Amino acid sequence: MRNREMAGKIIIDTERCKGCGLCVIVCPKNSIVISRHSNKNGYFPAQVNNINCTGCAMCAIICPEAIIEVHRDNNIAAVESAKKDRPSLIEEKA
Amino acid sequence: MKTVFTRTATLKDCPTHYCPGCGHGIAHRLIAEAIDELGIRGRTIGIAPVGCAVLAYDYLDVDMIEVAHGRAPAVATGMKRTNPDKIIFSYQGDGDLAAIGTAEIIHAAHRAEQLTVVFINNAVFGMTGGQMAPTTVLGQVTATTQKGREAIGEGYPLQICELLAVLPGAIYIERCSVYNPAQVRKTKKAIKHAFELQVNGAEGLSLVEVLSPCPTYWRMTPAKAMEWIEKEMTKTFPLGCLKSFELTK
Q1: Radius of gyration over every alpha carbon of chain B, rounded to an integer in angstroms
Q2: What pLDDT does residue A81 have?
Q3: Contact at 8 Å (CB) between B65 and B47?
Q4: Which residues of B touch A68 (CB under 8 A)?
Q5: Please, which of A6, A66, B15, B72 could form a disulfide with B47 given CB 3.0 to 4.6 Å?
């Protein structure tokens, strides 16, 4: 169910994240948080909740480490079902 | 699933040594993306500065050289004159370009050298411990201006872009920032345009100044540092294109 609604997906390389939190403030869907558990380098990395993600790539654009990879769903049915819940950036662009 | 954003090939797949929230990482990525989009990776030579970005050659997968403090435009001049088919860019901080290397950049601009300069302005000397730089804004507290910078005695902030824009040899001067994703996109456009001018043989120097955060020595969180650029730093260093150049092709 959740997977069907998802329009975007981001992958953060948490072992290389320095926890600066810039992606957390720029995310328009508030779907990134700072983790409670530290990584190998002792930083508290950004952690993602992909349910609300629209694949706008704002987080990846601001990330100083360039460790965020963004994917967006081309499947129109999935994008449509995501639109019903809340306005997304994909809707604005269409 | 379509990949919308991923690491570009010119940016080496390794962690950087920069502090959390530093703007150098963003600037490196923008340069790497501009080089890849123009397809000039094989014939680009970069010049790393002295400063925090001294290890830029470890992160950018193009030929790079490290030169003496502030002398990047002088070395770039020699490189461009002997290899006119190569794309030469220098990556310099404000301690490098606006303090010890002011003479070099002004003379490179007045000789109309075909160079691309990326100037990272973070208003302090980051590598040495956050001392006052020529670009430190009035009232800013640094390690050497503990009561805030005062114009009388410590001088006014040096506005390199305004200084160079009056020279006929400088053809493209733009000041951008990285405080939010929209500004990062504009910065990328500016950096790409600066490279494009050199690729197309436009005669003159192109410089892009990037207002970049230094959360460690501004004693702020990365988010606060970005806000400080937007609210305070842009008062002294207004964003925008100071000199534009249209390609006739």
Answers
A1: 17
A2: 57
A3: yes
A4: 5
A5: B72
pLDDT value at B109 more than 50: yes
Q: Which residue of A has its CA nearest to B180?
A: A62
Task: List the structure tokens of B199.
Answer: 């690729």
**What pLDDT is attached to residue B45?**
96
pLDDT bracket for residue A76 (50, 70, 90): low
Question: In a mutagenesis test of the B interface, which of A48, A50, A62 is the best target, namely the one with the most B β-carbons within 10 Å?
Answer: A62
Q: What are the distances in angstroms from CA B223 to CA A42, B123, B236?
A: 20, 17, 20
Interface of B with A in 170-199 (CB under 8 A): 178, 180-181, 184-185
Average pLDDT over residues B131-148: 94
Least confident of B4-8, B46-50, B172-176: B4-8
Q: How many domains does the structure of chain B reveal?
A: 1
Q: Assess if residue B116 is contained within a domain.
A: yes
Residue A84 pLDDT exceeds 60? no
Is B16 part of a structural domain of the chain? no
Tell me the CATH number of domain A8-93, given options 3.90.1150.10, 3.30.70.360, 3.40.50.800, 3.30.70.20.
3.30.70.20
Q: Which of A3, A4, A11, A22 to mutate to test the interface with B (most CBs of B within 10 A)?
A: A22
CATH number of the domain encompassing residue B92: 3.40.50.970
- A33, B30, B51 from A36: Cα distances, Å: 9, 31, 33
